[in-house]
Amino acid sequence: MARRFPAGAPGGRLVIASHNAGKVREIGELLAPWGVTVVSAGELGLPEPEETGTTFVANAELKAHAAARASGLPALADDSGLEVAALGGAPGIYSARWAGPGKDFGHAMGEIERRLAGAADRRARFVCALTLAWPDGHADTFLGTVDGTLVFPPRGDRGFGYDPMFLPLGSSETFGQMDGAAKHGISHRADAFAQLVAACFAGPAAS
Ligand SMILES: O=c1nc[nH]c2c1ncn2[C@H]1C[C@H](O)[C@@H](COP(=O)(O)OP(=O)(O)OP(=O)(O)O)O1
Ligand SMILES: [Mg+2]
User: Fold this and answer.
1) Which residues are annotated as active site (predicted)?
2) Which residue lies with its CA nearest to atom 20 of ligand 1?
3) Per the domain annotation, does 51 fall within a domain?
């Protein structure tokens, strides 16, 4: 059984266990209707754990447990990435690492284009594992996805990471061209978040 939130949460506070500003912004937007006070791992000065897992789920759980233990608060972690079909699912869990220490996603997108080398198959999907972990070690995890195709050159300067080269199925705009609300209508993160809400959040959202 998933544990309900905010039962037992001091003041309904929750840590967003991510050091990625784009994710912290999106998760904050998704949480906004739920009357939860959020604080980010960066604001609490929490360290960035090494992502030693071999799956999105393992890494989300590792990050959420580390932040919940260190802060004494429930913690929500996101491990996500882009899986390119013609590259056998790469970069996958290595999506952040492909951008290097300087977080150069222009370079990472160029690397994907180079490795595709004109391949006709442009299918890709984003995956997001979201874990809500508690200081006592309880955790619930939800997996979201969104299917699409890759476009070159990348389009748009909104969003973050690989957004400018990802065209979700049925859309004429890349994630990099969409505003936040449009991305939240279909994204892997919003998909996982909807499952989290259904399982863990009591009551209706504030309108
Ligand atoms: O909606 C997205 N739009 C574009 N790119 C995205 C998205 N979602 C994940 N991505 C890519 C970029 C990100 O850097 C990597 C996740 O790697 P991941 O380790 O989960 O996150 P991270 O290292 O950036 O921050 P942190 O681990 O502190 O949450 O996949
Ligand atoms: Mg990371």
Assistant:
1) 79 (proton acceptor)
2) 79
3) yes
In-domain check, residue 4: no
Residue nearest to atom 13 of ligand 1 (CA): 96
Domain count across the chain: 1
| Residue 161 in contact with ligand 1 by CB distance below 6 A | yes
Residue 7's pLDDT is 58
> Which residues participate in catalysis according to the annotation?
79
Nearest ligand, CA of residue 165?
Answer: 1
What is the number of residues in the chain?
A: 207
Does any domain span residue 207?
Answer: no
> What atom of ligand 1 comes closest to residue 160's alpha carbon?
4
Ligand 1 pocket member 154 (CB < 6 A): no
CATH number for the domain including 61? 3.90.950.10
pTM of the complete model: 0.96
Instruction: Tell me the ipTM for this assembly.
Output: 0.99
Domain carrying residue 192: 11-200
Q: What is the pLDDT of residues 77-94, one digit of tens each?
A: 999 999 999 999 999 999
